Amino acid sequence: MTDNTEAAETAGSSLPDERELERREFAEQFGVAWSQTGGPRMEGRVIGYLMVMREPYISLSELAAVLNASAGSVSMTTRRLLDTGFIRRHVIPGDRNYYFCAHDDMWGSWLAGERRHLAAQAQMFERQLELIDGDDPAVASARRRLVNGRDYMQWLINYHKQMLADWEAYKVNRDGGRTS
């Protein structure tokens, strides 16, 4: 265990203090809320805990202990959350363990990273459109659905850029003109 991880200490032999219990309860509540939007509950639990933990980072094994979850489940979840931009990996030189923390603005990070997935979907629709014979009336409905799918993804990509710019402007205004 790392020296700076209060949560890991409380996950071991000693009992967690009241504030740590509140952080864990928040993670559980966030997991339930996350699952109600269709996401895996474990993703919500991990994000929830990383948002409120006191330490700057936590190891995979410590996170599993705090959440009372298997290391395999936490490992799979952190990989997905890294890919979507909600969390980031923290490296300690010479240490082979994986450490994680939440982005200070995980929502903006997610919004920026989601465009990558939207672009992949748009390309998938485009590849399928290239395979459809445009003159065949039997595939007109399929073509229309694919064109709408491709164009919707492109529209979302462009809209994401505007939303991210609006979000950054909102934060500057909220923070009295200071950029973070």
TrEMBL record:
It comes from the Bacteria. SUPFAM superfamilies: Winged helix' DNA-binding domain. Keywords: DNA-binding, Transcription, Transcription regulation. Residues 40-96 form the HTH marR-type domain. InterPro entries: HTH-GbsR_regulator (IPR052362), HTH_MarR-typ (IPR000835), WH-like_DNA-bd_sf (IPR036388), WH_DNA-bd_sf (IPR036390). Gene3D superfamilies: Winged helix-like DNA-binding domain superfamily/Winged helix DNA-binding domain. This is MarR family transcriptional regulator. It comes from Dactylosporangium fulvum.
